[in-house]
Amino acid sequence: MIMPMAEPPATIREMNHDDLSMVSDIERRSYEFPWSHGVFRDCLLAGYQNIVLVREKEVAGYGVLSVAAGEAHILNLCVDPELRSRGYGERLLDEMLFRARAASVREVFLEVRPSNELAIALYRKKGFHQVANRPSYYQAHEGREDAAVLSKKLVIED
After folding, report:
1. Cβ density class 54-85: b for 16+ within 10 Å, e for less
2. Domain 10-153 class?
């Protein structure tokens, strides 16, 4: 009997400037309207919580979290298209939620395209629910696409 090969181990660490080319490459391959290299650079300079998931010495995914005034906002969460559905997105999301709790955040928000069913399924699995709709939020080929605004209240342990 042939056993399936186990996934190589993956670790999560802080994003740094040397990661930006790999992060930008994943972003371009993932979205029709990707963030630019400069946007990721600005997120590093702004001091956001920027993380990467590394697998076999290569960046396989990343997340960007903004924390302010007791709230957190997941600005970006993405896994290399060739490595999706392996639990990496969930690991990145769990790390961002852990960091939000550590910063005494009470609620986490994010926007997601309603057409991004895989992402919405992950967010719902983790306890997010829709709290609003932002009309014409995302660029689209024909006009604009709305964004579903999702939220998750965090329990802060004393």
Report:
1. bbeeebbbbbbbbbeeebbbbbbbbbbeebee
2. alpha beta
